[in-house]
Fold this sequence. Notes:
The protein is mainly beta. Helices cover 14% and strands 41% of the residues. It folds into four domains: 56 residues, Ubiquitin-like (UB roll), CATH 3.10.20; 55 residues; 73 residues, Resuscitation-promoting factor rpfb (Resuscitation-promoting factor rpfb fold, Single Sheet); 135 residues, Beta Barrel (Barwin-like endoglucanases). The strands form five sheets. The protein has a six-stranded mixed beta barrel with strand order 16-20-17-19-18-21. Strands 2-1-4-3 form a four-stranded mixed β-sheet. Strands 6-5-8-7 form a four-stranded mixed β-sheet, with no helix packed on it. Zinc ion binds next to helix 5.
Amino acid sequence: MSRGPVLGKTAWPDLFPVTKNSCGYGRAAIDLCRRHALAIFYGAVVVLMVLVYHGARHQAALFLDGEEQGTVETFSRTVEELLKEKGIELHPRDRVTPHRQTVLGRYNRIDIERAFEVTVVDGNRLVFVYTPAVSVQELLAGEGFELGPYDRVEPADLKEVYDGAVIKVIRVQKQYACSRSEVPCEVRIEKNPLLDRGLSRIKNEGKAGLQEDLVEITKENGAEVSRKVIGTALLKKPLAKTVEHGTNTTLRRENRVMEFEKVFLATATAYCPGTPGSGCPLDKKGRSFCTGSYNNGYTATGKKAVQGQGTLASPRIVAVDPRLIPLGSLLYIEPVPGIGKIGFAKAEDVGGAIKGQRIDLLFDKHRDVSKFGVRRGVKIYLLKGS
Ligand SMILES: [Zn+2]
C-alpha cells in the first residue's frame, strides 16, 4: 500500500486537517489519525446511503371499498405512482384517499372506492352518472342538478347513493291565476201561517254575489297536479233568498172547516169503469177496451165503481199509491182548470201506473176520461181523521 497523499493535496476532501502543532504527534501518529478519519467518513457515507434507502422506501396498506387488500412496499413518490406501479387500474371517477398527487410518507393507508352507475331522472330527462358513494345532495350538486325552491328529490329518505340507484328530481312549478265565480246566496226560511203546510213559496229571489279567487296551480314535470285557492276577494255581496214555508193546517171548503194531514201537488189522470153505459169501446166479446176482462165494476176496496158527486155524502173515487195515501183516506181535490170542481174524494182503488204523487180519478163516462187527459200540479189535501 502506497503512502497516502500529501496533506492538503488529497483527492478526498481534507476533512480532518491535522498539523503538527494542533495534533502534537509525530508522522506515524498523524497517518493513523488520517486513516481513522477516512474510516469514519466512509462509515458515514454508508450510514447516509442506508438512511436515504430507508427514507425512499414506503409502506402502504391498500383498502378497496373498505376491505384491506394487504400492505405493499414501494419507492414510488406519490399515491398515483404507487397505484400505477402496482398495476391498479382506476376509473377517473374512483375515489382515492389521500388524493392521487399526495406524496407518500413512511407508512400510508390508501383507500380506493370504486365508482358505480347511478340513474338520475331529472324531470323528463334521463341522465347516467358514474360516482363513488356520496350523499344524494352532493351528487346532485356535483353533477350540476340545481334544485329550485319547490323541486323534490325521490326517494326522499335516501341519504347516500348506491350502485344501480335511481334518483328522481321532480321539477315543481307554481303558477298563479285569478278566477271569478258566483257566490251563492243564503236561503232564509220564514213561516207563513196563511200558506198550507207542505207548500212553500219564494218571497224574495235573492241575488248571487261575485268573488275573485287567487288560484295556485302546481305543476310537476310540466303536468298539473293541483289547483288550490289561496286567497279570495268578495267583489259583490250576495243578497239572501227568502222562502216561506206554510204552517196552515186548516182547510175551509164547502162551508166546512177541516184539518188536513198534508197537501201535495199531484199528477192526475182519469179512468172509466168499462161497465155498460160508460161508452167505452168494446171488443168482439163485448168487453171494454179500457178495462179488459179484469173489470168487475168494483174498486180494490170493494166499492161499486161509480163517479160520485164530490160531496162528503157522495165523494169521488180515486186510485192512489197506498204507500203515500192509505186506502180509505178522505181527500179534498181542488178544481182542475177546464174540468171544474172535483171536491171530496176517497182513496178506494189502486193502479199499476199509479205510483208516488199520482192519482187516477174515476169518471162514469169514457168521453170525460178522454177530455181529462193528464193534469199536472193538481192540489190534493189528505184530510185528518179520515
Ligand atoms: Zn173507457
